[in-house]
Design a protein that fits this description.
mainly beta, 2 domains, eight-stranded antiparallel beta sheet, five-stranded antiparallel beta sheet, 17 strands, elongated
């Protein structure tokens, strides 16, 4: 009898064990998959900003998480756990620059790179909307001239090596950039590399107007008159520590960068589509920029 009882109890226990073992299948929590980032040419943003990934699902952004990048360009995190349904429904990946800390759950205006999914991967770059733009045809020129220390109507002071203006010399000078119109959240900025590091010529979004630095207390230009109706700068006043003004620009590196706006860093951002070296001749000689597309972030995102 004892043996029969044990058999009956054992048989009755089987469904119970089966139910316990299958209880996980009844869990309504979504199953997760991995989103993997393989992106190069990102830079350390400092403590005030972070990168954040987003998947576009039915037209709405879904965050995949934030990460930082060290001084060597290494991402702090390359794999992100995302619900499989979200992964499978995503049509696009977008990488943004976000403030840190960030109290806004929505993406910032600083959409850096993006890519459309084809199968399980997306090639990401600046040229895929809603990212910054296509720089494959980027071009421009500049000349050395220093009009802002000359009283109105006076003759040339003969110190044109102390100023740089982006465009073609003339009366008046004309713009000569071939660059994409930037979306909200981004502006261009010019730079001359001084003795201690990059010196800004000012931020700008229009090529046929003076830049945003014109007339501000941070301007390096002279005080006799404004510069021409193109972006640029003369280097006479407010020299930073370690720099000697007037600054001789001849033989120095010149850079056009793309900057987040507003910008919380005084240094150039990682996007530097145009670079050049200033020659020894001043205006009317002009110098062409070279493309520097290798500075632009690119890569692949897989799901």
């Amino acid at each position: 009898m004892k043996t029969i009882k044990k058999i009956i109890i054992g048989i009755l226990a089987i469904p119970i064990l089966f139910m316990v073992g299958c209880s996980k299948d009844d869990d309504n929590s979504p199953q997760n998959g991995n989103l993997t980032l393989n992106i190069s040419n990102l830079e350390d943003l400092g403590t005030g900003s972070r990168y954040e990934g987003w998947l576009l699902v039915n037209g709405s952004p879904v965050s995949t998480g934030t990460f930082s990048v060290d001084v060597n360009g290494t991402l702090s995190k390359t794999s992100f756990s995302v619900p499989i349904e979200t992964l499978n429904s995503a049509t696009k990946f977008i990488l943004t620059v976000e403030p840190n800390p960030d109290n806004d759950p929505a993406p910032s205006a600083q959409k850096l790179i993006a890519g459309d999914f084809s199968g399980n991967s997306a090639a990401v770059s600046t040229s895929v909307a809603p990212a910054i733009g296509d720089f494959s045809n980027a071009a421009g020129s500049f000349f050395l001239r220093s009009p802002t220390d000359e009283p109105q109507g006076s003759a040339n002071n003969g110190n044109d090596e102390n100023g740089i203006w982006f465009g073609l010399p003339g009366m008046p000078p004309s713009p000569n950039f071939t660059l994409p119109t930037l979306p909200d959240g981004w502006v261009y900025e010019g730079w001359v590399v001084g003795d201690t590091g990059p010196l800004t010529t000012g931020k700008f979004s229009d090529f046929d107007m003076q830049d945003m630095n014109t007339g501000t207390s941070g301007s390096f230009s002279g005080t006799e008159q404004l510069g021409p109706p193109i972006p640029g700068e003369d280097f006479f006043n407010n020299a930073p520590a370690g720099e000697t003004f007037p600054l001789d620009i001849r033989g120095r590196k010149v850079v056009i960068s793309v900057e987040p706006f507003p910008d919380n860093s005084p240094a150039p951002f990682l996007l530097k589509p145009l670079v050049a070296m200033a020659g020894t001749d001043t205006a009317p000689t002009s110098y062409n920029f070279n493309q520097n597309l290798g500075s632009l972030p690119t890569g692949t995102v897989t799901r």
